[in-house]
Amino acid sequence: MFLTGMGIFSFLCVLCGCYSPALIAQAFTPPKGVHFLSDWEEPQKQLADSGVDINGTYALELQANPIGGRNQGFANVSAFWFSCLVDLEKVACLWPGFGFYTTVSYRSGQNLSEIIGNEFNVATWFGGSTFYLDECYLQQKFPCCSTVFRAGRMAGELSFAFSPLMWNYVTLAIDGNPISLYFNTPFPPDPFACWGLYFETKPCKSLLVKGALYNSNFHNFNNSSHGLNWSFDNTNGTMVIGEIQYQHLKEEKEGNYRVGGYATWDRQFPFTHKSRGSSYGFYFVIDQCFYKKAQLQWSTWAFGLVTPIEGNVIPYTFGWGLVGQGLCKNQPNDTVNFGLAYGLFGSEVRRLQAEAKREGIVGPFGNLIQSYEGVVELNYWFWLNPSFAITPLVQWVINPGAARTLSDAFVVGLQLSATL
User: At CA 197, angle to CA 196 and CA 203, rounded to 5?
Assistant: First the structure.
């Protein structure tokens, strides 16, 4: 009853305009200072000064695959975020550093990957096609020791196994987190928030340590587990994750080096349906600027995730890319982005698929023996103004479906993005 009351209160606050978006997973990092709704910029600043920081973002992805895959076709996906960070010290005269954060999101559209037949979604914003009252948590900052605590409903996408350079891509294999996190664990991405506890601290200027405990499970990816359904009705899912980040700055060339690990307990094995299992994994995510002169800047990024073969669908995932900014003199914020990602399916999965094929049945993972899938993407972010971007892109989907039964697919697309 108490949780239901909290949900109704939060919903009413959203309708009244008290809440909105801040740390949400956006597919791009827009230049600061100007918004698409320019008349709203000054009132927004005044609200932020008074303790209510409101933001909004909209994205539309249009994609087609003229060549390869199971079939050829066209699909579009749209997404909208509305978030708010409330400084309760200013708004409610509470103690310093105490705040409240919430997000509302809406997604709709079709999944082109269902037409192609590949595993790694070519459109990052497909999924959760409905309205979501997403993140909703309290946070306490301690500026004196650079420490933050959060408690409530939260997503982990921007907190762990993530680099801001990975925002620049459209394929889900890169944008966000290493793709195998979503196949192997109930890790909660946006907009599939779950109950959790989070902390971060900076023991020194160049080091950031953070960790979280999530009450997440694979049912968390169902739309019915969200909205105002904030109950702890399923104990089959606990995830602990931690990360250490080292920031290197030399001659204005910033680099971030992250290593982390996670463990899950009492989860549902995704392919054997055995309960009370456990698993763990380790990952790294790095980004480094290696060239900077005037407005021109080149950076590289890479990630890798390794887990035990037993109990995991994709035990090995790797990715790498290049990002160039300021190639055109009159477009200093434009970026060109090249990236690739690769996921190797585990031998235990292949064994179960081979058994299903011999017996002539469709097992939990089908009866086609999966090996690997990869994707290569090249795109260009063209900023028409500081709040609106057009992104033409091409993708090469290697071994769609991972079973070597479909020809490689070629995807062309266009993404439109606006900061409201």
Answer: 150
- Is the pTM of the predicted complex or chain greater than 0.90? no
| Alpha helix segments (H runs only) across 237-384 | 347-359
Helix, strand, coil abundance in the chain, percent, nearest 5? 15, 45, 35
pLDDT digits (tens, 9 = 90+) for 72-131: 999 999 999 888 999 998 888 888 899 999 998 888 899 999 999 999 999 988 876 778
Tell me what pLDDT residue 23 has.
32
Phi, psi of 419 (to 5 degrees): -100, 120
Element (H, E) at 63: strand 52-67
Domain interval for residue 365: 2-419
Separation CA 122–CA 131 (nearest Å) = 22
Burial of 202 (0-12, 13-18, 19+ CB in 10 A): middle
Three-class DSSP category at 5: helix
pLDDT value at residue 151: 95
The CATH number linked to 391 is: 2.40.160.180
Burial tier of 85 (Cβ tally within 10 Å: 0-12, 13-18, 19+): buried
Decide if 62 contacts 414 (C-beta within 8 A). Answer: yes
Q: How far apart are CA 127 and CA 172, in angstroms?
A: 11
Confirm if 375 and 400 have CB atoms less than 8 A apart: no
**Beta carbons within 8 Å of 331's beta carbon, 6+ residues apart:** 382, 383
- Tally of domains in the chain: 1
Cα-based angle 201, 204, 206 (whole degrees, multiple of 5):
100
